[in-house]
Amino acid sequence: MEDEELAKTEKFIKRLKTDYPEIKFRNKAKRFSYQLRGAVPVVFLGEPQPNFALLTLHELGHALCKHKDYKVDVERIKIESAAWEMAKTVLSEYRKKAQTETGLATILPEWDEDFVQDKMDTYRDWLHARSRCKKCGLTRYQTDDGKYHCPRCEAFTLA
């Protein structure tokens, strides 16, 4: 990440910390993530990289949506999608403020829908891999207890 881009990102993160004091931001984490520690939402910031600000907004999106956990894997897709939508909303709100607030527009990241969809694809691929039956290759379904079931293979074992 270039020095100029890094400085811009640092100013943006500082702004987020100011605007969202109820959320703790932790620097130098191994990866971008969000956790609820007790009642305190914590956003962990990964290493500097392209789209650092968008990844931060995504984790902030989890915090603002008050995400906790998921029971079945398809819920994970919904949670990730909701976090990206919230990130887009937050950025849009900042863009509106930037029309009247001097200097704000210079630190805002650009929304990159291709990047977002690439990130969502990792979860879609993960879900597809987890739901595929290792015996016959058919797509399995997951029940509320988190277990996957293959309609083909289980039909043969139940008979």
Calculate the mean pLDDT score and round it. Answer: 93
The top level CATH class name: Mainly Alpha
Number of DSSP E strands: 5
Strand content: 5-15%
Low-confidence stretches: none
Largest sheet: 3 strands, mixed
* CATH architecture descriptor: Orthogonal Bundle
Alpha carbon gap, first and last residue: 60 Å
CATH topology: Arc Repressor Mutant, subunit A
Description:
- This protein is mainly alpha-helical and 159 residues long.
- Helix content is 52%, strand content 11%.
- It has a single domain (3-132), classed as Arc Repressor Mutant, subunit A, CATH 1.10.10.
- Helix 2 packs across helix 3 and helix 3 (73-98) packs antiparallel against helix 4 (113-131).
- The model has no long low-confidence stretch (mean pLDDT 93).
Outline of this structure?
The protein is mainly alpha-helical. The chain is built from five helices and five strands; from the N terminus they run αβββαααββα. It has one domain: Arc Repressor Mutant, subunit A, CATH 1.10.10.
Q: What characteristics describe this protein?
A:
mainly alpha, 5 strands, elongated, Arc Repressor Mutant, subunit A
